[in-house]
Structures are given as structure tokens and as C-alpha cells.
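At this stage, I needed to go through a protein sequence along with its fold in C-alpha cell form, as given directly below:
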Amino acid sequence: MNKTRLQQLGQLLNASVVSKVLTGAEWEREGGKKNPEVGDAIQLKKVCLMVTRVSGTQLICIEIAAELTSVEKQLLGWAVQQGGVRPVSNASDLERQARRMGDWIQQSVTAGEWRAEVPDRMELRNRLFDGMVPFLLLCEQIEDKEPAYAELEKTIHSFISDDTLLIPLREHEWLILSSDRILTEADNEGDEVLGHEETKELLANLAEGLHQLITGEWGGECHIAVGEPIIPSESVVRIVGTLRETTFLGRKFHVGMQVHLPWLVHLERLLSGIPEMVRSRFVEEMMGRPDLFTDSETVSTLDAFFSMDCNVSETAKKLYIHRNTLLYRLDKIKHEAGLDVRSFNDAVLVRILLLLYKVTKRK
């Protein structure tokens, strides 16, 4: 359920309602039955837990801060079942196979089995081949209405080739595997052999195009992460974990960004592992001006400068300002912070400080 639905339910019940994710083991420890289904509930001392979706080994629940009567639990459970379960009989064979594959991937990721290979029992294994481009799609719909599998598949096929598999993972999250032929099809230069940098540029463009297509069709907040071509039978679990981490880091360090690329968040991955107290202290100790990054012009200038590899002329073009105006801004930063971003060592330090400041001061 999205925030709006949770708030509406809370108003009806006159109680706080929040979303919560539990494992099957945690559910059983709280007194729930083994292998719970959508609509099952546990009444604890001060809260009631109800399953709204089963995703692999995870249970997506709502936690209601109230003691519900038996009738209230039955009615709410019935409503959840009606709203959250799509009739299996209407699903195609491909959708059922894709959902089984998605459940297996989710279980493997949760168990930390990142090197697991797709087992032979998975019917979809026969449609996996060497050289498939992985996209991770996360859509947080405004109305909490997840598009039907067939509708989303049709939309995706209108953008990329039919040799594409759509695999549901968690709620509002899908893995898309497409033939790496889309890279040569998208290559305007028509080169038979693409270099590494050209491949990454094409992948970024494809992800951007897919993002525009999905948001235009379904609305809501949508995030796309893309990886380089893989052998999915061997690497599908690992790439799902990698793209999830990439999306998490992108949303954490670069608010407002919707397309996320693993090769652009190496530094963010490193900084994310530093304890929050250490990050905060480092920022406070290194900043000559504590309020430097509160200036939106300064932040946008530095973001553009670093995205253009510290090239003054290209940064000025990106910002639509005169080169001298950019130099004035950089000199101002040097005067106020004591750090010259045109110097390699200072540029590295400012880049780190900017990333850390974004996450430490946003809390």
C-alpha cells in the first residue's frame, strides 16, 4: 500500500497504520502460522499485523496500532485479498514462469546466494542466453495501482525488442532482460564492435528512454537501473543485488535522479559504508564554511563541474553561462572554503564533502 492508502485506512480505523516487511521466521515468532497467505493477521498487545503481499521469503504487512475485533480483521482481510490478488487463471504461462523465476531470485538474494545459477527446474531458463542487458525497474505508483503483467510487457516491447523477458520481483519492482542486440540497434554510428565507453553511453540512453516511456504511460515515481550485458543463467542473482544497491545509492546521494548507473556510484558505495557519526564529524572538521553547500547555485555548479570531469569550458556550456562567470564562481568557492576544485587533490576532497553533506544534512 502507498502512503495515501495507509493514511485513508488509518482514518477509517482511527489508528496509526504503517507498512512493514517481515521474514517468514519473524512472522512465526510473533505467533503467526507457517506459510501465511494474504489477509492473515496476528493480534499482538498493542498492534495488529496483517499480510498484504507474499514476495518470496518476505511478507509485506501493515501494522495497525489498535486492537481489532474478529469481525474487523475478517473484513479487512477480505478487502486486502480482493485488492491484492490477481486471479492466477488469467495469467499466461509466461507470466507464471516469470513469477516463479522472480520468487527464486528474491529468495536467493535474501539468502545471500549471489553466485547461485538458475536451476534447471525453472522453465524460463531455456529463454536465457548469453549477452542479455539487465534493467531494474522500480515504480512507486501514485494510486498504488500496479500495471498488469501483460500491459507492462506490451509497453516495454514497444521500446525494445521482443527478445525481452519481464520478471516480477517485489511489489512494484521488475527485472527486464533484453538481448544485447538493442545496443547495435541503438548505435547511430553503426559500429559492429562497440567500445566499453560507447556501450555504457548507449546503456544510459536506453535507460533514459525506458524511464520516459514508463513514466509517460503509468505516471508515479519511477527509477531505472541498468547494467552491462550478462550471462543471466549464471549472474542474474548478482545483477539484481547490484542494481538494487545502485538504485539505493542513487536515491540516497542524488535526490531527484531517476536513472541509476553502477559505474557512476563507486565513490558513493564506499562512502555509504562509513558510519554516520564519522561522516558528520568529517564534514564539520573539513568545511571552512559550514553553510557553503546550502547555496543551491554552489551545489549545482559543483555537480555540473564534476559531471563534466572538471572541464571548465564544458561545464560552462552545460550551465548556459559564460566561462568567466564559472571561473568567478570557482574562485568564490576557493575563497570561502579554502579549496580550489581546479586542483586534483582539492577536487577529490570537495567531491567527497559534497556527497557526505547531502546525506548528513538531509536527515
Observations:
- The two ends are 24 Å apart (CA to CA).
- The first strand starts at residue 17 and ends at 23.
- The longest helix spans residues 196-218.
- The chain has 14 helices and nine strands.
